[in-house]
């Protein structure tokens, strides 16, 4: 037994040096159940690893008597690395790992009792989906009515709730069929000797539940159980913890140290139950609760904002973050007239942070609530030549659903595009298998034609299915003839079945938002290129030189070139190549350029873009939280649900506490959603922040129409939208900015200049005077452009 005198002696151990009082109290707790409320940036990983080291060094437990559960392999490896640095021990035999990793180890040791082969295999998510598809094909399951992806979620959800097929409630014919398929899937996995991730947890739990000797062995063995990120545990994981530890009165010999933060519980959509923390306190009669409130990451203006915000949540255990780092800079709040202007401002401020204030790009993060928001920001970063990386996901034009949509659009423009044909001929699924496509490719190769031209040579059902797909694309091409770019995309999304396909996907909401954002991308493309959103052909804009004379278009031959917006010619001309382009072809070129360029290389200093969910556990010197508008953040799906709104507030809390030194919050008066301009009010979360911690960069409750000429962002840079012709009076962006009454461009050949769209370039020549002056500029990424200086707003780079 560890005595009080032993504890006093152990308190002087070197490994406790540098811990604050709360951390030290958590590390040196007696062997009893305890809950550690660890705030953001409070050093919880240090507490967990030091607790284990302290238990080992003081002889309270052997390495084999510790069970430590983390949520990621990265966290488990970090814990082991720190432990081996603290103590001269071989930590490889210790049970430290993720829930799934530890359950795999447990089942390997007891494979016979678990009724598994010794060398059982684990199905990852994709393997599991393939197994379900194979089963559906074997038993002729109607995949239109029961999509394999939906069946996968159903099965995984049942396992997370600890339910086998006989335990699932059957409410109707549909649920009965799903349960039947679940049973067939279980039989198939057992026959093949494989387990999925959910099975690892469920079978481990059941083995402990049903085998008294095994359960008692592990309860005696693991004297200390430590669980990280306890707020993210689901129903089955908590049940497994109770089974392996034993509730009070069940002959338990274990002490559980649960570490978590209910204010950072943001994974309810994955099954996480923040209520597990309160249940743990009640069911284990927890007497020790320690709050780690000392933050080592952020300044107090940032922390005060986080504390004030989260205090509006009612169902929380309660804590307040504090720091010794001082107040720091105020939290900057910006209101932009549009999402495009918001993105311009973000990029302008990013450039100032890097060039003017010495921030590293990799230490700057731009956060957004919805992945679809990244598209506008990515476009501005691309145009400005700023390297960026989308953390935990793909860039907008690289996302699978967007690639599918673009493939359909390319087939409208060019039906003989074999790459696009192969990508979507069976997506969404329409009964065209790999064997059919192999036959089609053989036929095309033999005839020396494209795939679409070879479709007629395939007989039977295969040829009929392929012919139906080709006919679908042909009909869509006829239906969209003469339509605007936005109308083409909207019609394609409906006719292709992409929206319907992802609507049946439990996690398809993000993908649908991205597809709808594609319509907004098209709308922004035509607007930002300087022509009306209803145009059905690509007009000349301020960035291109006319290759047809005014006289050839029936216009006044004496009219100054590009002095006013000109009507679009029936066949628009690309000034760089001389090629005639449809609006669709121009947009596809734009998408390809953005998808294939500006990708940060490994190790390159690049701005980090990510959703707020993806940012959890990370920290940055400067953080931008964008899109703070009602319906976006908090998300519209949460507004009618109290629990949902509290989770959104926790998500905002996580976002705020990512920032170390500087925090920016922004919202837009108008935002392009689903190809339409929507008007927004600012998020309620902005009203819940302490006024004395904020600095309103733009006049609060005011538009930009009255913004003084001396207005400046930190570092003295004018807001980028001041050069964009975008106004704050809820009007659509102007086709072309208004001309200066007294133009004075000061541009000369040989100068380095910056353009909001094309980035940096070199002036090759200048022609004309006053409003008619034009400059020929070579941009590294976009080639040589003729720009009207009364419009282009070039900035000389010193």
TrEMBL record:
CDD domains: DEXQc_UvrD, SF1_C_UvrD. The keyword Nucleus does not apply. Keywords: ATP-binding, DNA-binding, Helicase, Hydrolase, Isomerase, Nucleotide-binding. This is DNA 3'-5' helicase. Belongs to the helicase family. UvrD subfamily. The lineage of its organism: Bacteria, Pseudomonadati, Pseudomonadota, Betaproteobacteria, Burkholderiales. ATP binds at residues 38-45. GO terms for biological process: recombinational repair; response to radiation. PANTHER family: ATP-DEPENDENT DNA HELICASE SRS2 (PTHR11070:SF2), UVRD / RECB / PCRA DNA HELICASE FAMILY MEMBER (PTHR11070). Its EC number is 5.6.2.4. Residues 545-565 are annotated as: Disordered. Residues 555-565 have a biased composition (Low complexity). One of its GO terms (cellular component) is DNA helicase complex. It comes from Ottowia testudinis. It catalyses: Couples ATP hydrolysis with the unwinding of duplex DNA by translocating in the 3'-5' direction; ATP + H2O = ADP + phosphate + H(+). One of its GO terms (molecular function) is 3'-5' DNA helicase activity. It comes from the Bacteria. Residues 300-617 form the UvrD-like helicase C-terminal domain. Residues 17-299 form the UvrD-like helicase ATP-binding domain.
């Amino acid at each position: 037994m560890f005595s009080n005198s032993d504890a006093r002696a152990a308190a002087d151990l070197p490994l406790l040096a540098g811990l604050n009082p709360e951390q030290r109290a958590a590390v040196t707790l007696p062997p009893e159940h305890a809950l550690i409320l660890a705030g953001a940036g409070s050093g919880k990983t240090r507490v967990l690893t030091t607790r284990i080291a302290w238990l080992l060094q003081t002889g309270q437990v052997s390495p084999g008597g510790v069970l430590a559960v983390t949520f990621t392999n990265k966290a488990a490896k970090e814990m082991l690395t720190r432990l081996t640095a603290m103590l001269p021990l071989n930590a490889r035999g210790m049970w430290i790992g993720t829930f799934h990793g530890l359950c795999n180890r447990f089942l390997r040791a007891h494979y016979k009792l678990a009724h598994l082969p010794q060398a059982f295999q684990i199905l990852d998510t994709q393997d599991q989906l393939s197994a379900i598809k194979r089963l559906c094909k074997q038993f002729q399951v109607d995949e239109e009515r029961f999509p394999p992806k939906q069946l996968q979620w159903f099965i995984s959800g049942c396992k997370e709730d600890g339910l086998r097929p006989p335990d699932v409630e059957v409410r109707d014919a549909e649920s009965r069929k799903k349960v039947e398929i679940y049973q067939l899937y279980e039989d198939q996995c057992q026959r093949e000797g494989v387990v999925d991730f959910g099975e690892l947890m469920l079978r481990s739990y059941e083995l402990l539940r049903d085998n008294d000797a095994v359960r008692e062995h592990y309860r005696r063995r693991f004297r200390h159980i430590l669980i990280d990120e306890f707020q993210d545990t689901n129903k089955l994981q908590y049940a497994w913890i109770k089974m392996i530890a034993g509730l009070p009165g069940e002959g338990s010999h274990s002490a559980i140290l649960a570490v978590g933060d209910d204010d950072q519980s943001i994974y309810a959509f994955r099954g996480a139950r923040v209520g597990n923390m309160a249940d743990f306190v009640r069911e284990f009669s927890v007497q020790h609760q320690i709050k780690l409130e000392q933050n080592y990451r952020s300044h107090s203006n940032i922390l005060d904002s986080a504390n004030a915000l989260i205090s509006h949540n009612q169902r929380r255990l309660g804590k307040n973050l504090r720091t010794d780092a001082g107040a720091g800079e105020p939290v900057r709040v910006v209101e932009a007239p549009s999402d495009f202007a918001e993105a311009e401002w973000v990029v302008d401020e990013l450039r100032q942070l890097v060039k003017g204030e010495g921030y590293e790009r990799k230490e700057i993060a731009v956060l957004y609530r919805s992945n679809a928001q990244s598209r506008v920001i990515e476009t501005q970063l691309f145009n400005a030549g700023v390297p960026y990386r989308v953390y935990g996901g793909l860039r907008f034009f690289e996302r699978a659903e967007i690639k599918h949509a673009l493939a359909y659009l390319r087939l409208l423009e060019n039906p003989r595009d074999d790459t696009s044909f192969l990508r979507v001929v069976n997506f969404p699924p329409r009964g065209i298998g790999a064997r059919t496509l192999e036959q089609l490719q053989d036929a095309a190769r033999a005839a020396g034609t494209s795939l679409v031209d070879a479709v007629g040579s395939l007989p039977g059902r295969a040829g009929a299915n392929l012919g139906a797909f080709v006919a679908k694309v042909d009909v869509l091409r006829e239906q969209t003839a003469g339509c605007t770019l936005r109308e083409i995309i909207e019609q394609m999304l409906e006719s292709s079945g992409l929206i319907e396909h992802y609507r049946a996907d439990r996690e398809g909401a993000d993908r649908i938002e991205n597809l709808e954002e594609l319509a907004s991308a098209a709308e922004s493309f035509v607007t930002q290129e300087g022509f009306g959103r209803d145009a059905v052909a690509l007009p000349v804009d301020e960035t291109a030189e006319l290759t047809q004379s005014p006289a050839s278009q029936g216009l006044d031959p004496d009219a100054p070139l590009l002095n006013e917006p000109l009507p679009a010619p029936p066949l628009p001309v690309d000034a760089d190549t001389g090629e005639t382009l449809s609006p669709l072809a121009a947009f596809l070129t734009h998408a390809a350029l953005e998808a294939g360029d500006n990708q940060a290389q490994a190790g390159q200093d690049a701005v980090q873009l990510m959703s707020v969910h993806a940012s959890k556990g990370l920290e940055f010197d400067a953080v931008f939280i964008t899109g703070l508008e009602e319906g976006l953040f908090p998300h519209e799906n949460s507004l009618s649900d109290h629990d949902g709104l509290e989770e959104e507030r926790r998500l905002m809390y996580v976002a705020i506490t990512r920032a170390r030194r500087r925090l920016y919050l922004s919202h837009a008066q108008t935002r392009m959603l689903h190809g339409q301009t929507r008007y927004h009010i600012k998020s309620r979360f902005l009203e819940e922040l302490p006024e004395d911690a904020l600095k309103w960069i733009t006049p609060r409750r005011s538009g930009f129409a009255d913004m003084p000429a001396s207005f400046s962002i930190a570092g003295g840079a004018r807001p980028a939208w001041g050069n964009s012709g975008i106004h704050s009076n809820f009007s659509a962006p102007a086709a072309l900015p208004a001309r200066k009454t007294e133009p004075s461009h000061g541009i000369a050949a040989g100068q380095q200049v910056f353009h909001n769209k094309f980035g940096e370039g070199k002036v090759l020549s200048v022609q004309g005077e006053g409003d008619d002056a034009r400059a020929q500029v070579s941009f590294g990424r976009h080639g040589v452009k003729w720009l009207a200086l009364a419009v282009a707003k070039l900035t000389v780079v010193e």
